[in-house]
Each structure stands twice: as C-alpha cells, then as structure tokens.
Amino acid sequence: MEIIYALAIGVLTGAGVWLLLRPRTFQVIMGLALLSYATNIFILGTGRLAVYRPPIIGADDATNPALYADPVPQALVLTAIVIGFATTALFLVVLLALRGLTGTDHVDGREPDA
Amino acid sequence: MNALVQHLPAVPIVVPLVAGALLLLLTEGQRTARVTLALSSLVIQLVVAIVLLYSTTDAVPDFWTEGIGVYSIGGWPAPFGIVLVVDRLSGMMLTLSATVALAVLIYSLASWDRPGHPFYSLYQFLMVGLNGAFLTGDLFNLFVFFEVLLAASYGLMLRGVGAQRVAKGLHYIAANLAASLLFLLGVAVIYGTVGTLNMAELFGKVAELPGAERTLFDAGAALLGIAFLVKAGAWPLNFWLPGTYSVAIAPVAAVSAMLTKVGIYAVLRVGTLMSQDQAAASMLGSILFFLGLATLVSGMIGMLATQRLTRLVAYSVIVSSGVLLASLGLGIEAVTAPVLFYLSASALTTGAFFMLTGMTDRTRLPSSAPASDEPPAPSMPAAAIASPSYVSFGVLEPDTYGTGEEVGVSIPAAMAFLGLMFVCCVLLVAGMPPLPGFIAKFTLLASALAAAPAAGAAGQAWALTIAVLATGFAAVIALTRIGIRLFWAGTARRTPRLRVLEAAPVAFLVMLCLLLSAFSGPVMTFFEATALSLHDPQTYIRTVLSSAPHVSSGEPEP
User: What is the pLDDT of residues A16-66, one digit of tens each?
Assistant: First the structure.
C-alpha cells in the first residue's frame, strides 16, 4: 500500500509542478490544485498508513496507543483542505478578472510576442 | 494577578478579528462608524502591543515567568494544547506592525477608502494574520496565520484598477500558494519525524532523533525555510515582489512591507530555536548568508536599473531583506541586536516611503498621468477599460486626484514637505547619519567585523561590509536621480494638494525614525536583551512547557 500511496503523491506532484510552470492561467490553477491534493495526501501519510484503527480512543481499551491511528494529521489535513479550497476559489476569481480585463488567458496578461 | 490581564496575549488576534467581521456588517453609508471601528481596533492593538512589550522587559520582572508570557488558548497545557507565546521578540514585532499599520490606516482614510470594496475588513484580517504569526507558539498555527495574512493581502493587492495590477496580483498569489504548499509539506515532514508541532517541545526533541530520522527532519526544516524565504523576499524567490509591490496602491504597499518582515521573523524564531545544534546551524548559516548576499546584490542592481520610484522602493525592501538574511547567516550572536534595530528602522522607513510615493505620484499632470504608472501593455485593448468586469469584480478606480472633491484640510508648502520627507527617506534607505539607518548599519558591520575572526567568518563579514556599503552608495545614486527628476527637473509638474491625514502619518513614521536615532542607546539595550533571550532558547522551551493552563475566573479551579 505504501508504494501505491507514494507513487500517487509523486505523480500528482509531478503533474502539478509541470502544470504550474505552464503559461496559461487555467493550467496554473489545475497545477496548484494537483499540488494541494498531493500535499494533503502526504500530510495524511505522515500519520502512518493503517487500516481498521480508529483515531478516537475508546473507553474500554485506552492503554495501547499502537491500536489507534494518529488523529493530528487528520485534523491538520482538514484545515489544509479548507484553506486550500478557499485560496483556490480566490485564485479562480482573479483568473477570471484577468481574463475579463485583458482578453487573454496568458499569466502575464498579454500574449508573448510572436 | 488580575485575571483579565492574563488574557492580554489573545487581544491582538481577537480584536481585529471581531472588528473585521463587524466592519463587514456596516453598510457603505456608515462611514463614520466604519472609520471609528477600524481606528479604535488599531489603537487597541497598538496599546496592547506596547503593554505586552513592556511586560516582557525587566521593568516588570514578576509579570510573566522569566519574561515570557504563555497563553493556552484551549486551556490545555503546552505540548498538547495550542499556546500563544509573548517574549521580547514577539512584543517588539507586534508593536512595530501595529505602529506601521495605524499610520497606514490613517493615511488611507484620506482617499483610498471608496465604497464597494471591503478595504477596512481585509485590513483588519491582515492584522489578525500578522499578530497571530508573531504570537503563535506552534508551527501549524504559524501556517494558518500566514494563510490569513496572505488571503487578506491577496484582496488588498488587487485593490485599484488595471490589468497590470491583476496580472501582478495573479503572480503574487500563485507564488505564495506554491510557497504555502511547501510550508505544509515541511510541517508534515516535521510532524512525521518528531511527533509534535509545538516549537518549544519540537526543538527539545530534535537532538534525540536517530540519524535517518534526523535527515528527514532536516529536509522538512529546509522546506519550511524555503517557504519563509519566499515571504522574506530572498533571491531567487523574490521575482514576484518588485512587480507586485510597485503596482499595489500606496497604503497596501506600505503595509506589505511588514509582510517581508514576517518572513524574517519566522527565520529568526525557528532558526534560533534550531541553532542548538552547531553543525546544522553553521550549514544553515552559510546557505542563509549567500542567499542574503545574492538578495542584497540583486536588490542593488534592481535599484540602479529602475526608473520608477515605487519600483525602486520595492527593491529597497529586497535590499533590507538581503541585509537581514546575510547578517543572520553570519552566525554571530553579537549581530542579532543590530539586526533587530535594522529591522525596526527599515520597517518604519519602507512604510513611510511607500506612502510618500502615493503622494509624489500626484505631482504629475493629469494629462501625462496614466491610471497605472506601468507602461500600458502593448496588446491591452483600450476598450477593456470600460469592460463590465470592473464592476462585476468590484475593482474600481479611486478618483484621479486633484479634480474630485477634497476631503479634509490641506497643508501649506506641499512641495517643500514632499521634498523634505523624500530627503529623510533617502537618508534612511541609504543609511546616512544621523538617521537610524546609519546607526543600524554601523553597529551591524562593527559587531560583525569585531566578532567575525573568532567565529571564523572574517571573509564573510568583509564581503557583507562591502556589499552593504556598495548598496548604500547605489541607493544614493538611484534615489538622487529620481529625486532630481521629481523635484527639480521638468516644468510639467503641478503642486498637489496634500491633506493633513496623508501627510501626518508619513511625518509620524519619519519622526519615529528620528526618535529611534535619538534614543538609540536605550533601544539598543532592549534589543541586546532580546538577542540574549533569543540565543538562550532553553528559557523559552522551559517556560512554555512548564506553563500551567490558565483557567478563566468564571470556571471552578481544578
């Protein structure tokens, strides 16, 4: 499972970085979105991958922490998702404003000189 | 102790948050209420910041344990709960940012608050982020407050009109979003290796890490460092800075000068806590030094190359970041106090200078003044100016000056005032006596050169000295050239009407600089105490971890 997980992060990051460096605003926003997915999955991974382990300690068996998943990365990733969502929405507005103002979707607001 | 006083560290975050939210509810017509609310929020922040600053000094030894105030937000003890920490450095940064922000807000009252744009709310949220970043005691909340700060600054940067501004804003947002993701990755790696994000506990535990984990931790710390350096405007991560700051409206650019200082603060805070490990510290230091030097040189070249005042001031922000980073990179403890002095002086200076550019821009005749100072983009169709998207996105142009109605009282001898303030700012940026820029640079270089041979960094100290002096010289050349063009040459100039509301904040910040210069002795003593406590992170760690959670008076004592 770790291999698939790591590969997923790698593919997302690679695609994200490539798109981020593209000259069109839509590609940039997609790149940022992919990068933030990669980051979020990565954060979740820092809590160690495990299945069938609850993050909340039950009343009956609270002695062995190895039976439980780490709740902190899950809380962190929730915060990161919310913040990432908000900033992506804001970026989208700026992207549309730039498109409306300049009539081009190039990140510099003008087409490169041919 | 008074229970209410215990809650003081939360005030700089809560007050602007509440004020910003309330400001959203007020309609555009209620200008008096909006202005009163925004101003009183800033005044409260300034007063509280000064009280907090005072409470961390030796003047009130028993206020906090060992001069470090710890406030547990959720009432949980430190390594588990979220804490706010006030020490000398935080107190100083809080006071500095509240001072600059108050001056800028007063300045913006004169003209920049046009209805239809939540300028005041965004401004308050910017303060939430700034204050929170200075106060927080754990890395993840540092990230959260950075995001608050940036989200507000995105909105503020886009204020005003012009395709250039939106395009530069887009670059700014993209660069900072990418940096935020790196920040998150760094935080995640650090949590994955150490298992905590509380700064005090973190740095106690780092030394115990086994080799492989330690490498991973260093990688995480490096990711954090990159994120901080993007904020601080270090070369080569500062490509967005001159463009963005020079097209932003004057008050926004002025307060944004504080944003680079947040990056420096983060480097200082996390860096000094980490420098317990000598090997890591020296490697970190040499990278920081060369990055700082490159920043300094690139800022200098930019200053000489540019013809526009706002862009030049933006490059001076880069130069000051370069000086700060390179000096921190020397790894000499004696330079920390002058670094803090330089940081304060340069924050006040850039704030004043950016506000001044807003006024000197108006000496151009309206006919020769395009809406944006930037040369118009070749392919930008003129019809786009009338595009409906201006209205739909709320980006409205503030009136061109002089023709509209005048708000407030004008001051006499406007050109003389502008010229005088310009000279003061030039002297400050270039570091000429008798202004604090000189004192800061002099003490910085003197202590660096004195302590460098012992630290084995004599070559680096000399390189820094040469670079700083050359940059000062370049600043004089560049600014004099622009000053001649602005005030002497060219008859096609008109004398703008300056309102007291605009002129006073600039004069106030310059006066503060003069005071900083006049009282540099006591100020330097304070900075030395700050530096001392920074280089003794054990006190910080001990105080934060041993702090008992504060229980409010309404609840039963456990």
Answer: 999 999 888 889 999 999 999 999 999 988 887 877 777 777 766 666 777
The nearest alpha carbon in chain B to A83 belongs to B147
Q: How many CB pairs under 8 A join A and B?
A: 118
- Min Cα distance B139 → chain A (Å) is 11
- Chain A from 17 to 76: CB within 8 A of any B CB: 20, 25, 28, 32, 35-36, 39, 42-43, 45-47, 72-73, 76
Pair B303, B312: CB distance under 8 Å: yes
- Going by C-alpha positions, the residue among B345, B496, B513, B477 that lies closest to residue B418 is B496
- Asked whether the predicted pLDDT for residue B400 surpasses 50, the reply is no
Please judge whether B174 and A91 are an interchain contact, meaning their C-beta atoms are less than 8 angstroms apart. yes
Q: What is the pLDDT of residue B490?
A: 60
Instruction: Please compute the mean of the pLDDT values over residues B7-13 and round it to a whole number.
Output: 86
How high is the ipTM of this complex?
0.91
CA distance B451 to B130: 33
Picking from B263, B253, B281, the residue whose alpha carbon sits closest to that of residue B325 is B263
- Interchain proximity B377–A98, CB inside 8 Å: no
β-sheet bridge partners, residue B410: B499
Q: Which of B125, B170, B391 to mutate to test the interface with A (most CBs of A within 10 A)?
A: B170
Pairwise CB contact (< 8 Å): A20 & B178:
yes
**Which pair of structure tokens corresponds to residue B14?**
């809560």
Digit-coded pLDDT (tens) for B429-468? 887 777 787 888 888 888 888 877 776 677 788 888 888 8
Q: Is the pTM of this model over 0.90?
A: no
Per-position DSSP letters for B436-498, written without gaps between them = HHHHHHHHHHHHHHHHHHHHT-HHHHHHHHHHHHHHHHHHHHHHHHHHIIIIIS-S-B-PPP-
User: What is residue B397's DSSP assignment?
Assistant: P
Looking up tokens 């392919």 gives B379
Contacts of B219 in chain A (CB under 8 A): none
Angle at A29 between CA A25 and CA A34, to 5 degrees: 145
Paired tokens of B137: 């005691």
For residue B460, give both structure tokens. Answer: 């680096």
Q: Pick from B353, B326, B440, B152: which is nearest to A86 by CA? A: B152
> φ and ψ at B71, to 5 degrees?
-125, 115
What one-character DSSP code corresponds to residue B410?
Answer: B
| Token pair in block for residue B406 | 């005048």
Determine, for residues B191 and A76 on separate chains, whether the beta-carbon distance falls below 8 Å. yes
- Rounded Cα–Cα distance for residues B266 and B262 (Å): 6
pLDDT at residue B381, as a whole number: 38
What count of residues does chain B have? Answer: 558
Ranges of H-type helices in B484-499: none
Facing B184 at nearest CB: one of A43, A86, A94: A43
CB nearest A107 (choices: B170, B177, B191): B170
Strand-pairing partners, residue B349, are none
